[in-house]
Design brief:
Length: 280
Amino acid sequence: MSAASRFSLNQATVKLADLATAVRVTVDAGIPAIGLWREPVQEVGGERAARLVRDAGLRVSSLCRGGFFTLPDGPERRAALDDNRRAIEEAAALEAPALVLVAGGLPAGSRDLVGARSRVAEALDALAPDAAAAGVSLAIEPLHPMYAADRAVVSTLGQALDLAAPFDPAVVGVVVDTFHVWWDPDLAAQIARAGREARIASYQVCDWVTPIAADPLLSRGIPGDGHIDFASITRMVRDAGYAGDVECEVFRQDVWDDDPAAVAVRSLDAYERLVEPSLS
């Protein structure tokens, strides 16, 4: 089995490339899987996107993203839930095992963090039957606390696991994204818990680079460019029993501005040096 056999290039890492280009550079780099995003898939249509990936011999490691359902009851919340149901259908059509969920931040003018988190739980309850019927795992991604106000009121792996707990592990799981969780002093215990509960639906690797960008969303780096100890976190995930794909998902302007073929090769090299040795 090659070193790259579990590696997946998340489409966000080559964000400025269209889907066909992203597929091509993934294949040319010898990477066997790709993590897709809904917007570029929708640009070409779901059927064509599925055919592009299938004809290239790639598997889809995940579809990003659903979520953003912290709004109070009303038309906008109902529209968000309907959009998540469409996302579940899209994931199933692409044969993506997981739909990554970003919970959403505080509604405009609200400071009620507890209430927003409770609405995430209610949304999972509403969507779980659809996910079960489609054979898609709803993968809750905790985001670093600096995003709690505007992107994700779920900030720790422990919170994500608590939200997932009422549901079948095959239906609701969690994402372990190194950028978002590396700082957590309870990380080892929570990854071990996720393993015991069979909840790890996706493992994503990218680095924490300082100084933080003016847009903090763009502070990720290719593994090796920042401060994260990938060997230790990868061993935790391995020991928790995770055997799925490992996605490199980077949001960084200079990475996006680079040649996508070069980014794919560089991402694979970083995976082979810093991540893969700790999987075995």
